[in-house]
Specification:
It is found in: Cell junction, Focal adhesion; Cytoplasm, Cytoskeleton; Endosome membrane. With 717 residues, the protein is of the alpha+beta class. It folds into four domains: 190 residues, Up-down Bundle (Substrate Binding Domain Of Dnak, Chain:A, Domain 2), CATH 1.20.1270.60; 103 residues, Pleckstrin-homology domain (PH domain)/Phosphotyrosine-binding domain (PTB) (PH-domain like), CATH 2.30.29.30; 177 residues, Rho GTPase activation protein (Phosphatidylinositol 3-kinase, Chain A, Orthogonal Bundle), CATH 1.10.555.10; 53 residues, SH3 Domains (SH3 type barrels, Roll). It is 48% helix and 12% strand. A six-stranded antiparallel beta barrel has the order 1-2-3-4-5-6. A five-stranded antiparallel sheet has the order 10-9-8-7-11, with no helix packed on it. It starts with 8 loop residues before the first helix and ends with a strand.
Length: 717
């Protein structure tokens, strides 16, 4: 089980459970810090002591093998699993190199030691400083609060008002410090997944360069290195989007803390001071109390953050009644009395403020008025699905535009198109093939329309089920479970989803031209089609699994929407004499297609639109033509958002280009699907590149091995 997500709303409750979760993150940071220190020490010994090279390398490898990554959340993506096992792979390589007794690499200090020291100083040290500040503010807030609550109600009103303001200021500052600390802790936990692994990967690459005897081992390692590079970049891309979402949520919490506090209709919890008689003296004891409305059970746990966070034994009782305590009947403020069904006497409790007392009284059905939380009424999702035959023609001219669905249209035009389409009087008159409506305007309107639906297209009811399906270990099981869930959706939702996914499959089939692979489309539509009902840190961490669900829908759209679940999905029997060129020619981009860098387009969330628009846009986009190239290489990757579109030296349907014995450099990465093909990453240099008998492919030499290279993935030097 990974580390639990730290919710910003828990900073306001400051519960014992929250403190325990925070401790687990702190312990993981300490563990990482100690491990990095040990790793740096071992690395320096490796560089400086040639005579102890063998011992130092084995110890270093053992350290890598023993360390295990802890990810936030209850499941890991395939990329995170790849990164998590990378340390064990590195350790195996180092052990193998030690058997060869090769020499010390000269640049280990630059590629390994300095980045790790920088990560430790800039990231982990910053988290430690934030912890010191958080602990200091905790002690200050608790002290001021206790002093404030001990004020007599008989004090002058001006004095009490001034004291209230002072406590509010201290409390607000404590909440801000707490939010910043939680944000920093989770940021470091996420950042180490790539800032920590990349130096190690660079160190291993240096070993392959300087060790002659490691040459054969480097070739064997190259496949895993390619996968790991992609996984690291995917993780980095997800981190950037996730970090911005989490940071945005933190800002919302700072600006409107009361609107984002977690208030449940079934549960009330927080700190209360309970009046107890000990040794014939009445004292106020601080408890963390939880009240469950359904069984009317009150649970109290003795806990004081100032005392190191030690928890006392849990006490509970069934609530009988709750009565507000009049100010003139007790010296303390914010008090109320409760009676229990299973214990005698009256229990006097003191809330932290008048508002806090009101919430407790409301929850316990006391004499204070009850304020019901507003609930948005859920309108029927679809009244009908409109179909128009000219939509596909209007989108066809721009199907090859780079960044389709990534590049946003002009907001004023998008809003105009939406207003015209949503108006029954003008809907039929909208001509989408008119020059007035650019392709990016239409695609932006589709995305905006789906975002502002009262409920996501794939419904809140099944949102968690789709996420759980994406977290399954077996890829085939994922597809089967998602197939079943899609057919559980309401009929109108499923029809609308089918129209949209068929259209996206058509877009993905042109990914060599528009650069919108299945993975890119998953990034665009995952958070929209499967948005959570509540915006939390844990929900943001699940965005990567929302993307995977959309990828599976697109890749397997024919099976999912055209076949009934639980039907026999036998293998596709193909003629034995069919060439592998043909089998790859009709193959849609797979879920493993991961671009190194994605387009970044800001999104804006608005509400209040109905659901008749998407069907107009995608109703006829149900066909997926095959790519135009003779054979589509696996997962093209782009090194920067501005990367040029792969330019072939000859068209796909022309004869091979006439080149012989030249050098070429890879513009993109490619993973081999057959033994005759070469796997490589961007920047790889090939020798003796010349024309191949297969159109669209070249032959070249890499690390002494000859093989096929996609023609439009390289550039001649």
């Amino acid at each position: 089980m990974g580390l639990p997500a730290l919710e910003f709303s828990d900073c306001y409750l400051d519960s014992p459970q929250f403190r325990e979760r925070l401790k687990s993150h702190e312990a993981e940071l300490d563990k990482t810090n100690k491990f990095i220190k040990e790793l740096i020490k071992d690395g320096k010994a490796l560089v400086q002591a040639l005579k102890s090279l063998s011992t130092a390398k084995r110890k270093f490898a053992d350290s890598l093998n023993d360390f295990k990554f802890q990810c936030i959340g209850d499941a890991e993506t395939d990329d995170e699993i790849c990164i998590a096992k990378s340390l064990q792979e590195f350790a195996a390589v180092l052990q193998n190199l030690e058997d060869e007794r090769t020499r010390m690499i000269e640049n280990a200090n630059d590629v390994l030691i300095l980045p790790l020291e920088r990560f430790r100083k800039e990231q982990i040290s910053a988290a430690k400083e934030a912890k010191k500040k958080y602990d200091k503010e905790t002690e200050k807030y608790c002290g001021v609060l206790e002093k404030h609550l001990s004020l007599s109600a008989k004090k002058k009103e001006a004095h009490l008002h001034e004291a209230d303001n002072q406590v509010d200021n201290v409390r607000q500052h404590f909440y801000e410090v707490s939010l910043e600390y939680v944000f920093k802790v989770q940021e470091v936990q996420e950042r180490k997944m790539f800032d920590f692994v990349e130096p190690l990967l660079a160190f291993l690459q240096g070993l392959f360069t300087y060790y002659h005897h490691g040459y054969e081992l480097a070739k064997d390692f190259n496949h895993f290195k390619t996968d790991l590079t992609i996984s690291i970049q995917n993780t980095r891309n997800r981190f950037e989007s996730t970090r911005s979402e989490v940071e945005s949520l933190m800002r919302k919490m700072k600006e409107n803390p009361h609107e984002h506090k977690s208030i449940s209709q079934h549960l009330m919890e927080g700190y209360l001071f309970v009046l107890e008689k000990r040794s014939f003296v009445s004292t106020w004891v601080k408890y963390y109390c939880t009240y469950h409305r359904e069984p009317k059970r009150v649970t109290m746990v003795l806990f004081d953050p100032k005392s190191g966070g030690k928890m006392g034994e849990e006490e509970s009782f069934i609530l009988k009644s709750c009565t507000r305590r009049k100010t003139d009947s007790i010296e303390k403020r914010f008090c109320f009395d409760v009676e229990a069904m299973d214990r005698p006497g009256v229990i006097t409790m003191q809330a932290l403020s008048e508002e806090d007392r009101r919430l407790w009284m409301e929850a316990m059905d006391g004499r204070e008025p009850v304020y019901n939380l507003n609930r948005d009424s859920q309108q029927p999702l679809f009244a009908h699905i409109q179909k128009r035959k000219d939509i596909f023609e209007s989108l066809s001219p721009g199907i090859d535009e780079q960044g389709l669905y990534r590049i946003a249209g002009v907001n004023s035009k998008v809003q105009k198109l939406l207003s015209l389409t949503m108006d029954p009087k003008t809907c039929a008159d909208v001509e989408l093939d008119s020059p007035e409506w650019e392709i990016k305007t239409i695609t932006s309107a589709i995305k905006h329309y789906l975002r502002v639906l009262p409920a996501p297209l794939m419904t809140y009811q099944y949102q968690r089920s789709f996420i759980k399906a994406a977290k399954m270990d077996n890829p085939e099981t994922r597809v089967t479970e998602i197939h079943t869930l899609v057919h559980r959706l309401p009929e109108k939702n499923r029809q609308m989803l089918e129209l949209l996914v068929n259209h996206l499959a058509n877009v993905a089939s042109h990914h060599h031209q528009n650069l919108m692979t299945i993975a890119n489309l998953g990034v665009v539509f995952g958070p929209t089609l499967l948005r959570p009902q509540e915006e939390t840190v844990a929900a943001i961490m699940d965005i990567k699994f929302q993307n995977i669900v959309v990828e599976i829908l697109i890749e397997h759209h024919e099976r999912i929407f055209q076949q009934v679940p639980n039907s026999a999905d036998g293998p596709n029997n193909m003629p034995s004499n069919q060439s592998r060129r043909r089998s790859t020619e009709s193959k849609a981009p797979s879920c493993s297609e991961r671009p190194l860098t994605l387009f970044h387009t800001p999104t804006h969330s608005q509400k209040g639109m109905n659901t008749a628009f998407v069907s107009v846009i995608v109703s006829t986009s149900t066909t997926s033509p095959s790519p135009t190239s003779p054979r589509s290489p696996s997962w093209p990757m782009f090194s920067a958002p501005s990367s040029p579109h792969p330019v072939s030296s000859a068209s796909s349907d022309s004869s091979p280009v006439s080149v012989s014995g030249r050098k070429a450099i890879a513009l993109y990465a490619c993973k081999a699907e057959h033994e005759s093909e070469l796997s490589f990453i961007a920047g790889t240099v090939f020798l003796n590149v010349h024309a191949s008998r297969e159109p669209g492919w070249l032959e070249g030499t890499l690390d002494g091995r000859k093989g096929l290279i996609p023609e439009n993935y390289v550039e001649f030097l």
